[in-house]
From TrEMBL:
This is 6-carboxy-5,6,7,8-tetrahydropterin synthase. It comes from the Bacteria. Its EC number is 4.-.-.-. The lineage of its organism: Bacteria, Bacillati, Actinomycetota, Actinomycetes, Kitasatosporales. Zn(2+) binds at H17, H32, H34. Signal peptide: none annotated. InterPro entries: 6-PTP_synth/QueD, 6-PTP_synth/QueD_sf. The active site is at C28, H72, E115.
Length: 127
């Protein structure tokens, strides 16, 4: 049967931010923190010989990158853009495509970032 396989792996990190460009008094303009989740979602039409889209273990560089670059950071100090969930999702997608994608079979479909259980933002890769 024709179809597509999709896998995802979630990475948690803690970080603080303040959002810029918001109206006076907006709560998110104040310094505050989130327990973030970044989910990497890959897709493939065919599985490899192990029955994988990509071994989840091959996504370990994402953990390392997030730990070194984002975890327990003030995001405004370490990122050159306003640290919204949308911008973080695109940032992680761009990094993944440059540093991880060339070495794996599955293709990056989207990155989803959550600041809280009730909200998320995605960057979808359009090819
Ligand atoms: N589209 C986006 N909207 C907002 C973002 C964002 O990244 N993308 N971020 C924020 C702030 O970071 C804010 O801290 C979170 O907003 P919000 O979910 O509204 O805050 P609460 O935790 O107070 O939400 P409740 O579920 O209502 O308690 C704002 N908007
Ligand atoms: Zn916030």
């Amino acid at each position: 049967m024709a179809g597509r396989f999709r896998i995802g792996k979630r990475f948690r990190f803690e970080a603080a931010h303040r959002l810029t460009g918001l109206p006076e008094g907006h709560q998110c303009a104040r310094l505050h923190g989130h327990s973030y989740t970044a989910e990497i979602i890959l897709a493939a039409e065919q599985l490899d010989g192990r029955g994988f889209v990509t071994d989840f273990g091959d996504l370990a560089p994402v953990r390392t990158f997030i730990d070194e670059r984002l975890d327990h950071q003030l995001l405004n100090e370490v990122l050159p853009f306003s640290p919204t969930s949308e911008n973080l999702a695109r940032f992680l997608a761009e990094w993944f495509i440059e540093h991880v994608a060339p070495g794996i079979r599955g293709r990056l479909e989207r990155v989803r970032v959550s600041e809280a259980a009730s909200s998320w933002a995605e960057f979808e890769v359009i090819r």
